[in-house]
Design brief:
Helix content of chain A: over 70%
Oligomer: heterodimer
Strand content of chain A: under 5%
Strand content of chain B: 15-25%
Number of strands of chain B: 23
Largest sheet of chain B: 7 strands, mixed
Number of strands of chain A: 0
Shape of chain A: globular
Low-confidence stretches of chain A: none
Shape of chain B: globular
Order of helices and strands of chain A: HHHHHHHHHHHH
Distance between the termini of chain A: 69 Å
Low-confidence stretches of chain B: 505-517
Mean pLDDT of chain A: 88
Number of helices of chain A: 12
Structural class of chain B: alpha/beta
Mean pLDDT of chain B: 87
Largest sheet of chain A: none
């Protein structure tokens, strides 16, 4: 009995954490290249509605996931053209992108509200998924959950172990110096921003095709903002983003279970504030502690770059 | 070494580069022979950096031709320049602070995949040329001299035929300069060419075999610096004779105005320098200089003097005997201590406010620009106009934004704004950093005149020539400690250089037992 509850809780925590992790990894890469894209929420919604619509129209979850990724990248491309080529303010443009994404997704999705769709299939690993507890939790997930774990490792490896990753960090650290040595700052940032859009689109697809397989207006419900907070919470490190995503995801789920069982009687709103409070607490702890001043934030984060030619 | 013969390694013909509103290079010709150390000489803003950035592929010429070993080439980007055999050491280093020495080197060397092998090569090259470097350290923890070594080693790893060095000595102690020159001479003896950019004439005369002089974007002369005097090259570089600053005869030194007494403060910045037991005294009518390599506590000392950082005890900083250590910057300015910071835009002036507003922000109390809490715009305008006229600030009007002024003009404005408040004490950081010679002469004269009127002037600068020209006494700051002040007239460059490198003599105030220990 208690095992069933445990497994159910763990499964829901994974469900809550996966979209956070996917979106945060994408934003982490973009921010490491020096671009602050506050439009994660908008890109997620674009991904969610596109993925849902494509799945409805074609009947294929795979097509839906790919369409969601493309939609996220299209939003990111719009952001890139505005901020990187036309040098608009990154904060304002990111906020606008979110507002735009909320409205556009509601418009596109108005015909799909309430329609059911088959959820993404669970890829159960034969044998392993039969194990008690660990089986269904670790080996009975859908593709996007496995992808989120694999991408954490891949992004960490890319940033610290590969030359392109080193160049990307260098661009975020000092675009002037990177330009002077001869690296194409703008092109690298475009790629990083597009990756951010792709991951946000996948996060959206997970919401509308797996977590709650349907389309509801504004269904990301602030997860894009939590993903942004998560990047700071993780101090721009992929593995910490994974831990943070599960912490933040866990908080929301534990709160649901605790409330239904009547153990804790805390208003839901207080619990949903926790990720942000935790981020502020971490920021304060890091800034005041012995690591004072070394938050690990990319030095050129949010700073526009215009090369002389 | 005689001037080598044969075809030039690098030849520029009629290089022209236009920026919005500025013709940065106007039909510039230049020749560098194999094995030659060639100087590119000119004032700030003469177009030197623009020219070499075109050689390194960072910028592209609008017109003209670059020839390499006699063949015309197009240098699309720095990768192409490095492939030809051109290496560059930038003036503002192209380094990444939060990354390691090794990563920084790897980023500047094309086609590196094995970091372990690269680390070994870094050690080899740094030993071979006497440039010690630890590949595993992070750049932010390194001194400016060490940072420059990264750039040089990075360039040398590519086995360059031509090494471009942009103002390499502006951040080094005299001893470090000597060591750098040895390295450069060795490189030239190996047959490599060096294009050496500087405005320091004495350096060029001892180091370089040939020189090209730029002024206002144009090539005004090509000469052999060994045959020229510093004076003749200065005249070519500046275009007019610059009058050296003169001190009023018979000036007397009065009572102590600014006293710093045992000031110790932890730096508020990560990787900052803590101040240890700073003691100094500046008297009325006197100019005291503080020399030192950048990043040895100058920023912290200046903040502690200006009031941006408060001392732990009020008595640690005294103005005419009155303890001001716990007063903030506005209160200190009101008490008669004015301040010119190093950074002009953003510290010395608000870039997006007009000159009149900037004049008001600093001078509203001492110049009485307020009436009942309201700004007296007529008096503000009069004050700003007075600064512009007396200090020859070239601007269309006082309504122009501070950011629209060139570095030299804005510096003249800021110095003028503080000097005209007739302070008891003026603290100035880097008064002529990046300022053309004409403006520098004007600023130096203004500081000397202020001292002659009875003010105490404290100048913190990395430019030793400047300090030797205008100060009466000179102290050196190193690792947050201030040396005893020497009489400038009696100090030798070697003595100062040793102090800058950290070899302190026994300070006067050191207790006997520790001095003997």
């Amino acid at each position: 009995m208690s095992t069933t509850i445990l497994v159910a809780s763990l499964l829901t925590i994974i469900g809550a954490a996966t979209p956070l992790l996917l979106a945060a990894l994408g934003e982490l890469v973009a921010e490491r290249s020096g671009v602050l894209n506050l439009g994660v929420e908008g890109m997620m919604l674009a991904g969610a509605v596109t993925g849902f619509a494509a799945t409805m129209l074609t009947g294929s979850g795979t097509v839906g996931v790919i369409a969601a990724a493309v939609a996220g990248m299209a939003m990111a491309l719009l952001f890139g053209v505005l901020t990187l080529s036309l040098l608009s303010n990154q904060v304002a443009t990111g906020l606008a992108l979110t507002i735009f994404g909320v409205g556009l997704s509601a418009l596109v999705g108005s015909g799909f509200v309430g329609s059911p769709v088959a959820p993404l299939p669970k890829l159960a690993l034969p044998g392993l998924s039969q194990l008690p507890i660990v089986g269904p939790v670790l080996f009975g997930q859908d593709f996007l959950v496995y992808l989120s774990w694999a991408m954490t490792a891949a992004v960490a490896w890319f940033l610290t172990r590969t030359r392109p990753g080193m160049i990307l960090r260098a661009v975020g650290e000092s675009h002037e110096a990177a330009h002077a040595i001869g690296y194409p700052v703008i092109r690298i940032r475009y790629l990083a921003v597009l990756f951010g859009g792709l991951m946000a689109g996948l996060a959206g697809a997970f919401l509308s095709l797996s977590y709650t397989p349907m389309w509801v207006e504004d269904m990301s419900a602030g997860r894009g903002w939590i993903a942004l907070a998560l990047v700071v919470f993780a101090a721009w490190r992929p593995w910490r983003a994974l831990i943070g995503a599960y912490l933040f995801g866990g908080v929301t789920i534990i709160q649901l279970h605790a409330q239904t069982s009547g153990i804790i009687n805390v208003p839901a709103q207080v619990m949903s504030m926790l990720p942000y409070l935790a981020t502020i607490a971490v920021l304060v702890a890091i800034s005041a502690g012995p690591w004072r001043g070394r938050l690990n934030a990319p030095a050129c984060l949010g700073v526009p770059f215009r090369p002389a030619t | 070494m005689d001037r080598p013969t044969g075809p030039p390694l690098l030849e520029l013909r009629g290089i022209t580069k236009q920026f919005p509103g500025v013709l940065a290079n106007d039909r510039v010709d230049l020749k560098v022979m194999p094995g030659e150390i060639h100087a590119l000489l000119g004032e700030n803003g003469a177009g030197k950096s623009t020219l070499v950035k075109q050689i390194y592929g960072v910028l592209h010429p609008d017109a003209g031709e670059i020839r390499w070993n006699g063949q015309p080439v197009t240098i699309a980007d720095p990768h192409a320049a490095r492939a030809l055999g051109i290496g560059m050491v930038f003036q503002h280093f192209s380094l990444f602070e939060a990354m390691s020495v090794l990563e920084n080197v790897a980023l500047g060397v094309d086609g590196v995949h094995d970091l372990g092998a690269l680390a070994r090569r870094v050690r080899e090259v740094s030993e071979q040329y006497g440039l010690p470097l630890d590949p595993s350290r992070d750049v932010y923890s390194l001194s400016v001299g060490e940072r420059q070594r990264i750039e040089i080693v990075r360039a040398l790893l590519q086995d360059p035929k031509l090494l471009i060095m942009d103002e390499p000595t502006s951040v080094l102690t005299p001893q470090e300069v000597e060591r750098l020159f040895e390295t450069l001479r060795r490189l030239a003896a190996e047959g490599r060419s060096i294009l050496y950019i500087s405005h320091k004439l004495d350096e060029i005369r001892v180091l370089c075999h040939g020189a090209t002089i730029l002024r206002g974007g144009r090539q005004v002369a090509a000469c052999d610096p060994r045959q020229e005097t510093a004076r003749s090259m200065a005249a070519l570089m500046v275009g007019t004779q610059i009058k050296p600053p003169t001190k009023a005869a018979g000036a007397t030194v009065g009572a102590p105005r600014l006293t710093v007494d045992g000031l110790s403060l932890p730096s508020p910045r990560a990787h900052g320098i803590n101040l240890h037991d700073i003691r100094l005294e500046v008297c009325a009518g006197e100019v005291l200089g503080i020399a030192g390599v950048a990043g040895n506590g100058q920023a912290e000392l200046l903040a502690a003097l200006s009031g941006e950082m408060l001392a732990e005890r009020p008595e640690a900083v005294r103005l005419e005997g009155r303890p001001v250590g716990r007063l903030d910057a506005a209160a200190r300015r009101n008490a008669g201590l004015c301040f010119v910071p190093e950074e002009r835009n953003g510290h010395g002036a608000v870039p997006d406010m007009s000159l009149a507003e900037n004049a008001f922000l600093s001078g509203y109390r001492r110049r009485r620009l307020l009436a009942g809490g309201l700004i007296r715009t007529d008096r503000v305008a009069a004050f700003a106009r007075e600064i512009v006229e007396r200090f020859d600030v070239r601007t269309p009007g006082i309504a122009n934004l501070a950011r629209s002024l060139s570095g030299g003009n804005l510096q003249k404005f800021i110095v003028g704004r503080e000097v005209l408040q007739e302070p008891l004490v003026l603290v100035v950081a880097q008064p002529t950093w990046g300022v053309d010679a004409g403006a520098a002469a004007l600023i130096h004269q203004a500081l000397l005149d202020l001292a002659a009127r009875g003010a105490a002037v404290l100048v913190v600068s990395q430019d030793l020539d400047e300090l030797l020209a205008i100060t009466d006494r000179l102290a050196v700051i190193n690792a947050g400690r201030l040396s005893r002040a020497l009489r400038t007239a009696e100090a030798t460059i070697e003595q100062i250089g040793l102090l800058m490198g950290g070899l302190h003599d026994t300070p006067e105030h050191q207790p006997l037992e520790t001095a003997l220990a």
